[in-house]
Predict the 3D structure of the following.
Amino acid sequence: MGNLDNSDGDSIGDELDILHVDMDAFFAAVEVLDDQSLKGRPVIVGGSGSRGVVAACTYEARAFGVRSGMPMFRARKVCPQGVFLPGRFKRYVELSRELHVVFETFSPFVEPISLDEAFLDVSGAHLLFGSSLEIAKSLRKEIYGKLSLNCSVGIGRTRLVAKLASKKAKPNAKRVPGIGYFEDGIYRVGSDDEKKFLFSLNVGEVWGIGPVTTSSLEKMGVHTVEELSKVEYQVLVSKFGIAKAAWLKSITSGSTQEQLVSKTESKSVSHEETFNTDLDSHSTLDIHLVRLCDAVTRRLRAGKLKASTVVLVLKYSDFTRITRQIKLASPSNDPRTFLKEARSILSQIDVSSGIRLIGVSASGLLEAGGIEDQLSFEEINLEYESQDNLIEAIDEIRAKYGLNSLGPASINGSNTLKAKEHGDNQWG
Ligand SMILES: [Mg+2]
């Protein structure tokens, strides 16, 4: 084990056990890796259609003002000399797998949040690999050795802090002197620095505060997390509702309420239903399918997640259990997409011998609005997309007036069926 430098407070057992690892300009870096003639040039990967957005760009492109999420036509305007590429998703997935193999050599507790980003809980890894800072160093070295790609690592007590810290570890990040500890692609925020660190951020930099909330806050004169901390809770409630106000307040409390990566945290969202009497027709099962798809996608939307795979689970009268899954054309949290796929799976299954349990689960989760999500942006079914606002409105009405105020027609058309909530009827 190396010599520990305690000047930055780094030591074993300091409870800063969450690492957030994020590849630098991942898609663009992969393009440069595979074509060295692109080295040093402003490379921009993203959708080429009229609605395309930038999925990733090199630091050379950033110098021109190009940013991920920016509409492609604007990127072309600010950086006409850029190398514009459509992206090779398969290749990114391939390298992402290699990346995750490296993660798992350091900790069994890895929570991927997109192709090139993951949280690692290293609480059990110190004896083998040293302090969190040493683990971060080894991890960067190992990743570079295996993939020839750079990454940034944030170290913190909670996922939120680690995630925000990795941003400050980026090559071009603005760092406030005296807050946190920086070296070569690693930024570590100790417990004592947590509050100072969070307060120094603009509200728009905080993971989970999107552009809409940011502009609402800015209209209230709130630009930084410190300013947010001075806003009365009741003011936030009247502006954003109780749930969001509480969450905004938890960020500013300095000790974020975010939980550590749960070691049993599932990488899927699922609901299932056990029946009192076995069901043996597709039409009766379909009613439950509607509820389950509604419930699963509602939880995805609440967690700002999308799923790339829909899984249908069935248990027969004799307790035989089968699962069938289908990969979606693009990640989704739309109940109609889920229902369509779940129905197509169910229609191919013989249920005449009786079904005692049906479940729907969503796996392959990724952050809604994240980079992979944006890359698949152009493939989203337009028919559904025009109704995105409708689903948002339904979620809002339910938040205000209760779960059963609104929902799919086949839920509300029946007196006996209520919208499914997490945990209800879990055991039949
Ligand atoms: Mg990245």
Residues 104 and 110 are 7 Å apart (CA to CA). The pocket of magnesium ion is lined by residues 22-23, 26, 116-117 (CB under 6 Å).
